[in-house]
Amino acid sequence: MVVALSALLTTAGAPAAFAVQIERSGKLTVPASAALVPFSTDPTVAQVLGQDFDAAHKAASAETPSPLTVTVTVSQQPLKPGVSLNQLAPGDPQVADLIKAAGATPPPIGDTGDKPDEVAIARARAQRLMAPHDNPMQQLINQFEAPQGELGPPVPCDPQAPPGPGCAPAPQPTPRPLPGSPDYTGDSEQYMQQGSAARRFSPHDDTVYQTVIVARVTVSGAPDEMTVVGVTQPGEDVRAAKKLIAENIANAVLH
Q1: What is the pLDDT of residue 83?
Q2: Of 6, 47, 136, 174, which residue is the least packed, with the fewest Cβ within 10 Å?
Q3: E-only strand ranges, 41-150
């Protein structure tokens, strides 16, 4: 089961509203009479869960004989080059579907690296520094200026023009792999391109990227597990997003 929620939080005097897209999968089975103890790797999530459990009169006390522990493991990463799905959710590939449902492009499973393509840079530099007599246009002009009988190989046909006499058929582009095929890298290519405009000006500023927050929720003594994913837009308050994710978890546990 996947549940989608779009949360909106407006603060007094704020110039704009804060929003986080939240997606949830899985379910938890919690007895109605159980007393609950929240535990989380993130202090913000732990605080909100504790307040909600206490408000619902579900918080365990020191005298509670057999409380249930609600454990929430939280990870977060900006969606930038070098981040992999294994960093966000080790061993949980379904998180990629939740990230997509939340409106973001998931990172690839393996590390794509965060370095520029040195080969492409060297090729572009060589093209810019090419001597005038070596560039393709000058070579073409030299062929026309050569003496009769020394014209060399025929001028290649214009690939943008309709084929004419003596022109070989233009090579066809290689078909792009379809989703599901072994060579498909669409998600990776799209992931590496997102935020590229902002990267040129702020290469080390994580706030120019979307941020993904993944919360995995378990209850002691139960085999069930729930995963909650939140996506914030560049520059938005990640701590506020965690509060909304914690509220989402509390609602699923208490109702």
Answers
A1: 87
A2: 174
A3: 68-78
- Residue 119 DSSP label: H
Q: What pTM was estimated for this model as a whole? A: 0.63
Rounded CA gap, 112 and 224, in Å? 33
The greatest distance separating any two alpha carbons of the chain, rounded to the nearest whole angstrom, comes to 105
Query: 66 Cβ partners below 8 Å, 6+ apart?
Result: 35
Task: Give the pLDDT band (50/70/90) at residue 134.
Answer: low
Which residue do the tokens 């020394």 mark? 150
How many CB atoms sit inside 10 A of residue 112's CB? Answer: 17
Q: State the pLDDT at residue 43.
A: 96
Average pLDDT, the chain: 76
> CA of 98: how far to CAs of 15, 95, 200, in Å?
30, 5, 29
Residues contacting residue 217 through CB under 8 Å, at least 6 positions apart: 26, 28, 70, 71, 72, 225, 226, 227, 228, 249, 252, 253
Cα gap 53→35, rounded to integer Å: 9
Q: Classify each residue of 35-64 as buried b or exposed e, where b means 16 or more C-beta atoms within 10 Å of its C-beta.
A: bbbbebebebbbebbbebbeeeebbbeeee
**Contacts with 204 (C-beta within 8 Å, 6 or more apart), sequence order:** none
Distances (CA, A) of 36 to 3, 55, 173, 253: 23, 12, 60, 10
